[in-house]
Amino acid sequence: MPQPPQHWSGSISSAIKPVAGPVAGPVVGLAEAARPLAEEDWAPAAAAPRLAFLLADLNTGGVQHAVIRIATAMATAGCRVTLLVCEPGGKLEAALPPSLRCVHLPKASKIAARLSALRADPTAWRLLRRPLLSRRETQLLPSLVGLTDYLRREPPDTLFSAAPALNVWAYLARRLAGAATRLVVSERSHFSSGKPRKLQRKQILAPMMRHAYARADQVVAVSHGVARDLVDNVGVAPEHITVLHNPTIGPDFASRMAAPVDHPWFAKDGPPVLLSVGRLAGQKDLPTLISAFAIARSKRELRLVLLGEKNATAAGKGDIHSLIEGAGVTEDVALLGYDPNPIRYMARADLFLLSSRFEGFPNVLLEAVAAGCPVVSTDCPSGPFELLDGGRYGRLVPVGDPEAMAAAILASLDEPHDKAALRARAALFDFDRSIEAYKNVLLGLPQDDTYPAPEAWR
Fold first, then answer.
1. 389-409: per-residue pLDDT in tens?
2. Which residue from 16, 322, 331, 429 has the least number of CB within 10 angstroms?
3. Is the pTM of this model over 0.85?
4. Domain residues for 354?
5. How many domains does the chain have?
6. Which residues have C-beta within 8 Å of that of residue 121, sequence separation ≥ 6?
7. What does the alpha-carbon distance between residue 346 and residue 366 come to, in Å, rounded to a whole number?
8. Edge-to-edge strand ranges of the sheet holding 50-57
């Protein structure tokens, strides 16, 4: 098996000078975005690098949070940054910093988009045939025409995309536009496993991914596990992949930890409080989480707090309530919805739980470790094994095994934890190092340091 690619990073250089003060960053449609930018429209100098980040939406997922952090850091470093969004109206859109310009890509009909895709790369028509006929993979295809038009009218120096199908459409749009834009495609989750339909998706999309990724300027994987998956199951050349962890623990982390929590369960002298943070989606495997909590609760007094909102494709909140009621733990579980600052809860919880079926590199798990909160996580592909160094910094349990998770919960609550060691572990995934590495990739600069893979692999 090929060795996992290394994470490159380094110290912040002065190649890009910071700009003074905020940059105006309106939300606009493509027609407005297509006009030439006047000096008063944008604070950075005309020679500043122009970066565009392509996103499906601005909902409250880990991918969106990570990309916004990267984009904001690039804007602070003096780049002219635009977010290209396929589906407008996400909750994070209203909270975007003024340094980020947001452009909503218009949608064409799927027929027009399919014809554009085939025209972009006629030699790949056999590889495109199945993705273009897939309902799932073509959800964002109508934005292909708008993206192509944007790249023709206002070509950025680099386009960054962050989802499998979206990466393919970005490759086709750049080719169709004839733009000299560098293309950086990023994998943020484990492509080949987790969902029941992943095998079918691999058969449909992986051949075209392999074709498109080989023609991108850089492929970024969010963890070594994701990189290995791209090599083994998509066929991406390992030397074409750079592993860059998410820039998660930002400069404001300490202040976010110190923010008050007014929920009564976090008062002193109460029973242990367990915490889980994430979208109420099938990927997070809430049935296993609730069952594990109910088993552990039958052994001792415990409480569970869930932070997160319903995913558009997940079961409704009523089903979550049914799970809780069916497990007989209604009085001991609190559903608090989405909170923009879950870190303050992590700093006060007795144990953090991650029950996911698959991940890429779970930001919330790193945040919990950085807050000094002990963790129990499924050993899902991928990220937890890597982050916790094979279980040295938190207990790992099999996916979908509530009995094993319950046992790990009880054992973890009964043993001492070195919070300083947890924080030191999280410090290895340094924010500035990660941002510097992303800057180098986005601007085509050389990397100058490596980040080691875990000491042990399954």
1. 999 999 999 999 999 999 999
2. 331
3. no
4. 253-427
5. 2
6. 128, 172, 175
7. 11
8. 27-29, 101-104, 80-87, 50-57, 158-161, 182-187, 218-221, 241-243, 7-8, 450-451
